[in-house]
Here is the input.
Amino acid sequence: MLDNRPLSVLNRNIGNHVIVELRYGKEYRGILDGYDPHLNLVMSDVKEFIDGEQTRTMSKALVRGDNVIYVSP
Amino acid sequence: MLDNRPLSVLNRNIGNHVIVELRYGKEYRGILDGYDPHLNLVMSDVKEFIDGEQTRTMSKALVRGDNVIYVSP
Amino acid sequence: MLDNRPLSVLNRNIGNHVIVELRYGKEYRGILDGYDPHLNLVMSDVKEFIDGEQTRTMSKALVRGDNVIYVSP
Amino acid sequence: MLDNRPLSVLNRNIGNHVIVELRYGKEYRGILDGYDPHLNLVMSDVKEFIDGEQTRTMSKALVRGDNVIYVSP
Amino acid sequence: MLDNRPLSVLNRNIGNHVIVELRYGKEYRGILDGYDPHLNLVMSDVKEFIDGEQTRTMSKALVRGDNVIYVSP
Amino acid sequence: MLDNRPLSVLNRNIGNHVIVELRYGKEYRGILDGYDPHLNLVMSDVKEFIDGEQTRTMSKALVRGDNVIYVSP
Amino acid sequence: MLDNRPLSVLNRNIGNHVIVELRYGKEYRGILDGYDPHLNLVMSDVKEFIDGEQTRTMSKALVRGDNVIYVSP
Here is the structure.
């Protein structure tokens, strides 16, 4: 049976495209490269959106887990 | 006798439809797939509501426990 | 002599009606079914009030302890 | 010599009238029945004041320590 | 050589007059009676100031460390 | 295979130029000299931007991890 | 090779002049006397600035680490 605990779901999605919504109306879309138990996330080919408008692209970003609202694979 | 501690109640509701209310006027409705002791939740077939209006659907989402106000099975 | 530490008081009130006041002007009234040391609370037959107006009823709710201001039996 | 560490001062005041000021302009006045190391407080014969106006009385309340600004015996 | 770690400085100032500035524009002035590692402080002969105006006197107060901005001996 | 956990990514970028976005519209750009598991960061040749405008330069700065939104190498 | 972890950088700057920026537009400038792993800082000959205006001088201050945005030697 599939392990659906939060960190297992992150683990299964390494290499996949994810949407990461943060507080402050910020959203990061890109490939999930890594994570840790605090939900700190390493992403690549990242597009930042603020209040729905694209504001920045980054080849790599470490997003702090504290501000995460959800991660959607 | 039924175990009514918070994590046991989450555990009994795996596979069931739940309403998750977060800070910031956000609400997520969907199937509870998994959880961890921080109340991080994995959900599927998720509908997001902001201030009562449906704003997004997601096939899967990991919702960070920090922002949870309540989970209602 | 009666044990009046916080968790003991919660424990004695399992099965009783309680008022739970949260931040954000939210209040939950219902039966206390369970709790954990973080003051996460499981309640049944819950009425939600926002700024004093009843806004929702839930047969069951797990209320996250972080947002609790007080619990009154 | 008197032990003046915070928890010892709470312990010496069990059974005494205390003023508990919280964030959000809230104040609780009543008898201190119990406490724990997180400064969660159990009180009885409690009067709630918001911005200086009495708003509620409760025979018993468990006040979460997180929101405490000060406790004054 | 003098030990200037934070808790040692608090310890050396037991019995001395201190100014404790908190968030929310609050300031407490009085004698430092005790403390713990969370910077919870026990004070006596306390004057409360809000936005620079004296608002209350307390013979004793336990001030929660979470809200402290600085303590000045 | 490359280790893409958050702290490993920081470690690989020691000596590189990074962009550190914080809450409060603050951004720090400079060389990453060091870090710890709380994401506290030591930087050199730092330029501070507030809401996109350069406001300060510092030869060295220890930036507290709590306020970090992301670090981009 | 120089140890550039955050606490080591603080340690090397004991006795030096530092700028400590806090939340709430507050800044403290003075000599760093001591610190602990929470980034609580002991300073002497301290000048407080609020929104860039000098507002207070203190011969000694223990600044709580929680509110620190950065420390710049």
